[in-house]
Amino acid sequence: MNPIYILGIQIIQVLQMMSPAFDGVMKFFTFLGTVQFYLLLIPFVYWVVDARLGFRLLLVLISTDFLALGFKQLLHQPRPFWIGNVKVLAEETSYGIPSSHASDSLAVWGYLAYSLKKDWLWALVAVLVGMIGLSRIYLAVHFPTDVLAGWLIGLAVIVIFAVGERWAISRLEKLSTGGQIRVGFVLSIVMILTGWIINLLIALFPDPPQWAKFALHARGMSDYISLAGALFGAVAGYVLMRAHLHFQARGSGWQRVARYLLGIAGVLGIYLGLDMLFGLVAADQTAIGLVLRYLRYSAVTFWAIFVAPWVFMKLKLSEQPAGATAVGMA
User: Fold this and answer.
1) Is residue 299 a contact partner of residue 274, using CB atoms and an 8 Å limit?
2) Sign of the CA dihedral 163, 65, 113, 43?
3) What confidence score (pLDDT) does residue 321 get?
4) Residue 28: what are its φ and ψ, rounded to 5°?
């Protein structure tokens, strides 16, 4: 066995000496690093706090998840509980390194702290990101090196956005509304093609037989399709919102609460409703099923970014600011 994995197993065994007393705490922090949690957090930021910041957080999450997924498949390494000698406190069916919990938490919370420039938020980020990473090691779903690699990806995404954001915006603003939407679509197709190439490459390197019962969803295109669809729906929605609605997350307390509850209800309704409907049409891993998956995730983010704000404004839960002008991606 790889010496790094041996050391990682030993660290996990030491941490698991605190089990079961800390199992619940660690599972709580693990939940705070899931995509499901961010899909509750990011709409809150977008609808209730600041639409511009919320949209960028969504792009950060999609970008980070895409990078983590690509590296997971290219490296195709095991998780600790696949090897043994640890308590199985959680299960995952994708590859180990890098930890997407670690990468997502550092990227999303770090970018939030970078944008808001609050010292107390940086301190909160350090504790939260550290605990999420520790929880993944404690639960034996990641080696310490997986978490470190995830943090490197998350940090890289923050730097890329911080350095390249103004450059990208300055060029996108020169395009028409349709041109900006086409850029979002092309980027989503690039994500899909990248995933396809990666899957072709790793097909040459089958997993060891002892991993077979664990790595059930480690390969395949589903997650790339989901991310690509979410990206296109988000970009199209934001471009149209800025061109026609000029939604701003302002209003009284009751308006903000009503917006969030109504918006989340729409997210869940579209996601679950289309999942059931499309499931009757085609299996998820078929060509048609993958196209429908792309449409489903596009519909969810398009609702969150454009349709929900339109509904809010129609219901007087938000009002268009006076003198608003169309302004691309800014």
Assistant:
1) yes
2) positive
3) 63
4) -65, -45
The stretch 252-271 carries a mean pLDDT of 94
**Residue 300 near residue 230, CB atoms below 8 Å:** yes
CA 205 to chain centre: 27
The CB density around residue 136, as the number of other CB atoms within 10 Å, is: 30
Residue 325 has pLDDT above 70, yes or no: no
Out of 79-88, 107-116, 153-162, 282-291, which region has the weakest mean confidence (pLDDT)?
282-291
Measured CA to CA, the distance from residue 278 to residue 274 in angstroms comes to 6
Assess whether pLDDT exceeds 60 at residue 133. Answer: yes
Other beta carbons within 10 angstroms of residue 35's beta carbon come to 16
Bond prior to 3 in cis (omega within 30° of 0): no
Host H or E run for residue 232: helix 222-240
Domain residue ranges of the chain, discontinuous segments joined by +: 3-314
Rg, the chain, Cα only: 21
DSSP code, position 316:
T
HSE of 50, CA atoms in CB hemisphere, 13 A: 8
Assess contact for 170 and 47: CB atoms under 8 A. no
The helix/strand/coil state of 21 is coil
Q: What pLDDT, on a 0 to 100 scale, did the predictor assign at position 217?
A: 86
Cβ 243 vs Cβ 47: under 8 Å: no
- Tokens in use for 12? 């996990």
pTM for this one?
0.92
| Residue 141: predicted pLDDT | 94
Q: What is the dihedral of CA 230, 266, 282, 207, to 10 degrees?
A: 50
Convert the pLDDT of each residue in 12-64 to its tens digit: 999 999 989 999 999 999 999 998 899 899 999 999 999 999 999 999 999 99
Q: Are 260 and 311 in contact (CB under 8 A)?
A: no
> Cα–Cα distance between 89 and 24 in angstroms, integer?
10
Cβ-proximal residues to 49 (8 Å cutoff; 6+ apart), any chain: 249
